[in-house]
Amino acid sequence: MSGLPYLNKLRKPELVEFAEQTDLRDYIEYNKNELAVALDKHLRDNKTIFAGEKKLADYYKRLAAPLRGGSPVKRESAETPVTEKKKPGRKPTKQKEEEAATDPARRSEAETPAKTPARASARAVRALNVESALPPSPAVVSQAIDRQTAKVREGIEQAWTSSGVLERSNALRACLSSLKAIETVVLVLEGGSVLKELIPWRYLTTTPAVSAANIPSLPIKVPDLFVLVSGAFWAPFTLWALTGLILPLVAAYFFNLSGGASTRRTRSTSSRASFDPLAFNIAKALLVYIVYAGHFTFWDVFSHFTIEKVSVSVPGEWAGMLTGTAIGVIGTLYEAILRH
Fewest CB atoms less than 10 Å from the CB: which of 1, 89, 115, 187? Predict the structure, then answer.
C-alpha cells in the first residue's frame, strides 16, 4: 500500500517535523503536496534506516499493509451493471427531465444538486491552495532566518579576516602605543608647520579644462626650493631645531635620571646611552618660554623677527609648544607608573 495518502492527511508542520527528523534536503522550498511526495519517496528509499523510528511507525505500518481490493469475484460482481427495477409510484428519469424543463422551479431544483459537488470541489481546491500558501511553523521560519544570518555573518568575518585590516590596525596600534611615537608625532607636527610657513609655493602652470568630463582647469603649484639657499629659511628653521630638538636632547642626555637609575640597578658601568624623556620635555618647555615668550635672542644671534616667525608658524604659537611638552611629561609619568 502507498503511504502517500497518510502523508497527505497530515498538516504541513508535521510533515516538516518528519523532514527534519529524516534529514530531507531543501524541504523548506516545497509546499505541502510537494513535500508529501518528496517525503514519501525519501522514506521509501531509506526504509531500512527509519523503519525503527516511533514517529514514523504509522507510515511504515500503512506502507506494509496489503492493498484493499477484495476478492476477484466481488470485484467482478461490483463491476457488473445491475438493471434498475422500476418501482411503482416513481416517474421515469426522462419524464422528470421533461417536467423540469417546462417548470422553472423544478429546473432550478434539478440544477442545484449538480452544482453542489462542483462548488464543494472548488472550495476544497481553494482551501488546499490556502494551506499550501501558508508559511510553516514559526519555529521553522526562525531556524531558517538563523541559518541565513549565520551564513552572512561567516561571510563578513571571512572577508574582514582576509582583507588584513585587523592585522594592520593592530600593528599600527602597537607602533603608536609608546612615548617615542607620541614625541615623534609632536615634533613632526611642529616641524611640518614651520616648513609649510617657510617654504612658499610657486605657480607652475594650469591644466586645461575638460568639458566632456566636467573637469575645470586646475592651477599647479610646486614648492619654491630656491628659498633653501637664503637666510630667510635657515634662520627660523635653525632656531626651531635648537629650541625644539637639539638643546632638549642634549639636556636629556646629560640629565638622564632613568639611565642613572638603571645603571645603579644593574651595577654596570658600561650601560647603553639613552635620553630621558622627562628631562627632554622639561628642557624644551623652559627653552620655549624663555626664547619665544621672553624673546631671548641668544645674545643677538637671532632677531626678534625670526623668533616671531617661528612662534607664528607653530599651531597655537609658543603656547602650543608648551602644550606639546605637557603631553610628553604626562606620557612619561604614565609610562613610569605602568612600568613599576
Answer: 89
- DSSP letter assigned to residue 216: -
Q: Predicted confidence band at 76 (pLDDT cuts at 50, 70, 90)?
A: very low
Positive or negative, the Cα torsion across 35, 37, 41, 47? Answer: positive
The pLDDT-based confidence of 307 (bands split at 50, 70, 90) is very high
The single residue listed with the C-alpha cell 422500476 is 86
Contact between 3 and 62 under an 8 Å Cβ cutoff? The reply is yes
Confidence of residue 297 (pLDDT cuts 50, 70, 90): very high
Amino acid type, 19: A
Q: Provide the CA 289 distance to its chain's centre, in angstroms.
A: 51
Tens-place pLDDT, residues 31-68: 888 888 888 888 888 887 777 777 787 777 787 776 55
Nearest-angstrom CA–CA distance, 281 and 255? 12
Q: Which DSSP string corresponds to 187-211?
A: HHHHHHHHHHHHS-EEEEEEPPPBT
What's the Rg (C-alpha) of the chain?
48
H or E segment to which residue 282 belongs: helix 277-288
Q: What is the pTM of this model?
A: 0.52
CA distance 102 to 299: 137
